[in-house]
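HOLO CASE FILE
Compound: S-adenosylmethionine
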Amino acid sequence: MVNKLSIDTFQSRLREFFYYPKLNRESDAVDDPAAFEHEMFTPRTDMSPLTSLYIHVPFCNYLCHFCGFYKELNQQYPEETRQRYTDSVRAEIRRYARSGIFAEPTLEYVEFGGGTPTSLTADQLASILDTVGEEFTVRSNATVTMEGDAITLGDTQKLRRLREHGLNRVSFGIQTLHEPLRRKLGLKPTIGEVRGAVDSIRTVGLPEYATDIMYNLPDQDVDMLLSDAEEILALEPDYIDAYSLTLWENTGFKNRVDEGRGFSSQPTNDQNVEMFERLKALMTDRSMRLSRSYTFTQNRDYNYIRASRQLISSGGNMIGIGASSRGYVNGAHYTNVSSIPGYIQALEQGRLPFDVAQSYDATEHAHRIMVLFPSMLLELEKSKVPDFERFRATVDNLKDRGLLWEDKTTLGITDSGNTWAGNISREFFSDEQRKVMTRSFMYSLRHRLNPYNQDQSGVPKNRTRRTVRTEPGA
Ligand SMILES: C[S@@+](CC[C@H](N)C(=O)[O-])C[C@H]1O[C@@H](n2cnc3c(N)ncnc32)[C@H](O)[C@@H]1O
Ligand code: SF4
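Model generated. Tokens follow.
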């Protein structure tokens, strides 16, 4: 039985959910990686034939203050570490490809994220791309995409080399073009370098590129956001991913913003909603289409969007490679260790680098499709969701609120529902997962961890514990 709507959930706008179920270090720590690997790699007849690959590269040349993802400063590691990391990534890819669970190891798309993957050398990245191509069949029209930053993407030679090894899309964060705010956020690239990256992408002839813009930043108002958006539109990216700032508990940046250190205005929920709606109106006016709850695209069909929607709606496998990566494979969900040495050590010793993991039953699998569909703005074929009617009470409540629409075969998000994609997702959590989410958040508070990955990313060392609490939306 699914809970009725919790009105409270809609008081503040939640960030999108990209992963489900949530794992919690307290209850899901992996004591015996070999046993878990054996379980995950036991062939099942009900496994989806669709698979994608995500590779996390946690190295950056500078650290932006707001970023809570797992990444480390390149300058703190010798070159040898990046080479060993590269080799470990290749070993982990082979392990999945040769696991025996894939009838034909075929990939619908490949994503490199981070961190800043493009801060590895061209040789290192080419060797990873080659390993992917040797171990898997990458569909002929598949998107192979890599996150970079404006500085490293300005390296035309590197980009050309990656293009020769199959890369066909890149993305990078502009966040804002407002210089004083950029400095306060620790964004290193100059506006000239941002433009240089776009020139380089065009020179090399990459078919698609995406940029990230951030909103609800401290000291940002609606006019600043809209002028950023106008300038970014003038660069004609294929995709603009718009992220509202998440302030993760226990991080130094959240502490600074909460205490008003260095900033005179704080993000608010009302501003979050208003900024998204104003951005959406501007994008629509400029013929950009909302293709995911956070992604505006040019008004044409993109294979990447189509393939990722298909994968979500069929409960496809998402292989996560690299430190802190999350994966969902053959009915099991795992997160790798958030530690470069820990990751390398596991692979060099012949273990998969699981940190937390869990296998799930068919009911949780159905919840997963329902939780993930709002951020992909899917028009969900109801027949693909096992026992769809179990969600009837929640669906009807959301329809009454004007957030979902439904016809005989399909369930979709309404225009006003777009703004609340994260909140809608949350309504489809199983009872058990609601508890896990709260427990995992409380565990992170107690142990002074960043709740996103339950790791140390962005957490200042030797500070007294803070008591400020927010909605457990991580
Ligand atoms: C993981 S980063 C990697 C991108 C790449 N290194 C770069 O700087 O362009 C991907 C995007 O996540 C977004 N992001 C990072 N920290 C965030 C936060 N605290 N809240 C919301 N979005 C965030 C930013 O827009 C960033 O460009
Ligand atoms: S936003 Fe990108 S460059 Fe900045 S710290 Fe995060 S991953 Fe590194």
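CASE NOTES: The pocket of S-adenosylmethionine (ligand 1) is lined by residues 66-69, 114, 116, 147, 149, 172-173, 175, 212, 214, 243, 245-246 (CB under 6 Å). The chain is about 40% helix and 20% strand.
CLOSED: yes
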